[in-house]
Amino acid sequence: MQDHELRRRDILGECIAKGLLIAGVPMTSVNLFAFYQKAEQAASQPTPAEVLGPFYMKGAPNTSLLHKPGDPGFPLKVVGKVLNTRGDKIPGALVDIWHADHAGLYDVQGYRYRAQLAIGESSEYSVETIMPGHYPDRPAQHIHYLITAPGHRTLVTQAYFATDPYFEGNLEKNYSKRGIVSSRELIRTVKLFEQGTPHAEIEFDIILEKA
Amino acid sequence: MSRSISSDSLVLTLKFLDGGRSLAGGCSDSKVRVWDFNSGSLKETVAREQAKHPLTSLLSRLAWTDLGNLQATPKMPNRQTGENFLHILEASGKEKHRLTAGIGGISIVGFSPDGKTVVAGSYDTDLRFWNVSNGELLRRVEDLTVSMFAMAFSPDGKWLATAGVDRIVYLWDTSTWRIAKKLAGQPEMISALDFSPDGKRLVTGGFSELTAGHPVKILLWDLAAGKPMKSFDAPRQVTSAVFSPDGQWIAAACRDKSIAVHPAA
Ligand SMILES: [Fe+2]
């Protein structure tokens, strides 16, 4: 996804440089590019939906720290924004996030690896947790989402990891394997950070449709 | 004495027939199998496609979704919105009501024994009660925090029992559709339950938080005491548990394709 976007940006930049793309009124290439990007965002589709699964729990705490010190599993940070299809921020969203522990099990007695984030005006969220494990019934690592926001359709979805051994190193070929992942778009590039506490990071913006 | 009946296919729902002489199971291969209850021998295998056969509506009858003149049919949630719809269909197949029932899929559904109310639980953890005749939403319960996996009405219709992820049996007073009692004691999630014919006992079957393949307990409850009277081991998740019509036995279908038969008194 990200590669794809970068390629588009390069192509667009080249078009501007070569004079293949010019504004009707005088405009700097920077402005022209920004103008184009905005128009591009206007066409963005809502985040694809995924199944809710049987282990959603109501009443999770509003906390951005999902794991406890010493929890097994590789540290993971998840960041994103809640946007509408025009790319504008949606204030006041409630983002329920839950996932399995490092061994692939859900905490159904308490709220470990579960949060309901009350997102304010910034429309941004960020959580610190661990990489979810694999469990036999649903072998792709995933994070569940349930998002509600005033004036918008409720979205139930899941984020997946491009590094998941489940995809056998060939995402394009294997993402639809066994029909587990509904959309290629939900699989995210994993960034690794070595400095400080080594951790992985994924970005997962949520695009909601108007109600 | 406890014993076991084996099936060629995973049994999802059980029902006693012929006053308890036969035990029928709705199986995951879409067939209904009928065993002689005493000998455990297979008497009949019926494909559900055989629409005229009296056993073909067995699965839905057992799941409380068939009143004879009306059927409650949950639809798969809408792919993009996740919304659930519960269709109430007349015997002719004509739609009487299309009820909106939360998001994420319907986990339990059933008519009350008097046919006046239909209940559905959703994977978003909400429970809804509707008036069957006009489709009006009577009550939406939003304070359960987990999904319900199993339900049963008491034979006299006074109680609804629901249970699921949090291991608790919720007993609902059907005159108010509010929780009257909670039973705790099952050591894992609950995926099967039934009332005894006299309404005094309950059977529950477990579903391990580890996987459906892990061992669990089958509990026999004394409702007046609010406590389990007996506990039996099951090698995997219990998919359905029922009392025999004489109240003497419980039959519990398990994910290893066996049906365990235990004394209920
Ligand atoms: Fe899951």
Question: What is the C-level CATH assignment of chain B?
Answer: Mainly Beta
Distance between the termini of chain A: 27 Å
Q: Based on the structure given, which CATH architecture of the largest domain in chain A is correct?
A: Sandwich
* Beta-strand residue fraction of chain A: 25-35%
Instruction: Briefly note the CATH topology name of the largest domain in chain A.
Output: Protocatechuate 3,4-Dioxygenase, subunit A
H/E topology pattern of chain B: EEEEEHEEEEEEEEEEEEEEEEEE
Question: How does this model look, in words?
Answer:
Chain A is of the alpha/beta class and 211 residues long. Chain A has 3 helices and 10 strands; from the N terminus they run ααββββββαββββ. Chain A folds into 2 domains: 2-43, no CATH class; 75-208, Protocatechuate 3,4-Dioxygenase, subunit A. In chain A, strands 1, 4, 8, 9 and 10 form a 5-stranded mixed sheet that branches. Residues 1-8 of chain A have low confidence and may be disordered. With 265 residues, chain B is mostly beta strands. Helices cover 2% and strands 54% of the residues of chain B. Classes of the chains: A alpha/beta (211), B mainly beta (265). Bound molecules: fe (ii) ion (FE2). Residues 53, 138, 142, 144 of chain A line the site of fe (ii) ion.
